[in-house]
Amino acid sequence: MTSDLLAFDQAHIWHPYTSATAPLPTQLVTSAEGVRLKLADGRELIDGMASWWCAIHGYNHPDINAALHTQLSAMSHVMFGGITHEPAITLCKTLIDITPEALQHVFLADSGSISVEVAIKMALQYWQATGQTKKRKLLSLRGGYHGDTFAAMSVCDPDTGMHHLFNQAVTPQFFTERPSSRFETPFSAASLADLEAVFAQHHADIAAIILEPIVQGAGGMWLYHPDYLKRVRQLCDHYHVLLIADEIATGFGRTGKLFACEWAEITPDILCVGKALTGGYMTLAATLTSSKIAQGISQNGGVFMHGPTFMGNPLACAAANASLKLLLNQDWAAQVKRLERTLKDQLMPAQQLSTVADVRVLGGIGIIEMVEPIDPVTAQAFFVARGVWVRPFGKLLYVMPPFIMSDADLTTVCQAMLDFAQHGAA
Ligand code: PMP
Predict the structure, then answer these.
(1) What CATH code is assigned to 64-329?
(2) Second label for 68, Cα 20 to 30 Å away, from 128, 185, 250, 393?
């Protein structure tokens, strides 16, 4: 039975970023509880990925389950055009309360990529509506990743990123060098020269800069110093460029602050959140913006031109409300600090290995960058045999566990990463 399901899966189903003719092996998961994924053959894996940053409270959480059951019996979906509901209102109110005060308007999107599309459209519409029609380009950082849809792809790193196949098809944008400091190391003036030059030269054409604050995720798991964000904010103010913060991965506590922009004490003009918003239960994201931008777009009868079918889905909003309640009613900062301590204790020794290029830890994120690329198939088999779920990519081994993971479980995950870093899959 299991083998039939897996055979069908391999023959017919696309998984993220895979080939139809040479698919990567898949694990058949039948249930998930706490921090453990249960496989069809009875084995359990400790989940070091939190389902790509999402499942911060772990799986099958009674509070989120209960919220979903209650919402299901009231209303699973209703169109958002001309209709509103309490789960969406409560959610937007919470989002406005926990993000910087200037952000007062919320657009509910159905995935992270769409929240980025929405952010970009907000920036473009704002300048159109306010008469600065030349401002149609985006500025983005090398090493950045913002999603898989077309506008989002146009602001991903065009050289090392995942979407170079589409370089000729997407709108050409401006790029500046990857912020090349570490989280701990302030920037030298020289390392900001490229950023400053791009602003000085092209600001008249630039609607917004989009960046992932502090942690560049899928583009390479790079961490950088908060001073960079402070300088970006100053340049944006000086040159009249909007700042879009993509906190889809970093939002809701992952870096040790509720939002990574807080490390630099800056307020973006537009903020994208997703992933952990529903605790990983449902697909939902949100784009927040200021009254200045919202009013600019709306002047002279202007409307914001986006409206997905599943906008504000009540089940997703109910899951998000339960997840945010759980997060905000506990000492999440202490949880993440505890994860950070364990990750540092466990992973930093890997810096001594000749096979390892770098180790980086911040909040609930631990990264081992290898000298050589990792073969994903043998690596995955190695980790599954060790009873842990981490998914290497490129030269990177990385872990971002559910916040509830015990030190003992996190140590098991880190030890497996260390063994792999030292000995490979042998
Ligand atoms: N921005 C960032 C920083 C992300 O990490 C991701 C997802 N990996 C996205 C955007 C796109 O989100 P989604 O996969 O939900 O479309």
Answers:
(1) 3.40.640.10
(2) 250
Q: Which residue has the tokens 């920036």?
A: 123
CB 366 within 8 A of CB 347: yes
Tokens 């180790």 sit at which residue? 359
Q: What are phi and psi of 12, to 5 degrees?
A: -125, -15
pLDDT confidence bin for 28, thresholds 50/70/90: very high
Q: What is the ipTM of this complex?
A: 0.99
The boundaries of every CATH 3.90.1150.10 domain in the chain are: 1-60+331-424
The binding site for substrate consists of: 52, 145, 275, 307, 391
Short-list 332, 318, 392, CA closest to 363: 332
Q: Which of 275, 277, 282, 391 to mutate to test the pocket of ligand 1 (most atoms within 8 A of CB)?
A: 275
Q: Which of 275, 281, 398, 409 is catalytic?
A: 275
Per-residue tokens: 280:
């990983």
Contacts of 42 (CB under 8 A, 6+ apart): none
CA quadruple 254, 256, 262, 263: dihedral sign: negative
Q: Which fold has domain 1-60+331-424?
A: Aspartate Aminotransferase, domain 1 (3.90.1150)
Q: Which residues are annotated as a binding site?
A: 52, 112-113, 145, 246, 275, 307-309, 391
The yes-or-no answer on residue 145 being catalytic is yes
Report the candidate in 319, 255, 400, 321 with the shortest Cα–Cα distance to residue 97. 321
Q: Which of 47, 246, 269, 409 is catalytic?
A: 246
Asked whether residue 159 carries a pLDDT value surpassing 90, the answer given is no
Return the closest-CA partner of residue 122 out of 25, 229, 210, 19. 210
